[in-house]
User: Fold this.
Amino acid sequence: MNRMISTAILLAALMLPGICQAFNVSGTYNSTEGALTLNQSGDRVSGRYSNDNGELIGLMFNQVLEGFWIGDKAGQRCDTPKHGRYYWGRVVFNFSSNGFSGSWGYCNEVPSRSWNGSRGSGRQGFTPPPASTNDPFAINTDSINIEGAWNSSEGEIRFRQQGNRIAGRYSTDNGEIVGSLQNDTLSGYWIEDQSAERCATPKNGRYYWGRVELRFSGSTFSGTYGHCDGPLKSPWGGDRKK
Assistant:
């Protein structure tokens, strides 16, 4: 966490159900960056493409994939590695029944270069969410809406919301937030590439994570976080970007 290591946004199983009713994009594609194969589990997507031993990781938000490409080489080398490689960047793909249109960028820059693909094989469609029985993260519509961009003490956060299910990305150490919103309180986990304490088990394939609880009030929020399953004792606050 930024506050813990300096003042300076996914992939084994996370112990939470899928964040939303995910659009299923598993299959093969002919793309402008080479042959692409995607595999989806819930809202999480991983893939391989032929250019530069390329890898894709990301999250589905309805029909939109947001994530990262990672390769052996590229036109720009990033300052920090992702999955052990220094050539990577963000991607945003918008899927339809025939394929996808999207964009990519280098490192953490906003994606602006075109990346499109047409479906070769596989099935696209909506995967029903899990039954609400015994699911503490079942979708409901009782909570407030926090979707959008927020300034925070751990960097800018972009929240996505489906009912009470929340996924977020923030700028510190490729940070990720997953959880549920009950009334005005978000409870879940933060996950990062690096932090001050390495946990014994991974979440989303990463060993740096902890519990978080954030309470929203109008255009601001305040809360606390901890390391791994430890106590929540470090502050985390922010306000909605205008």
User: Anything to note?
Assistant: The CA atoms of residues 125 and 228 lie 36 Å apart. Confidence is low (pLDDT under 50) at residues 2-22, 125-141.
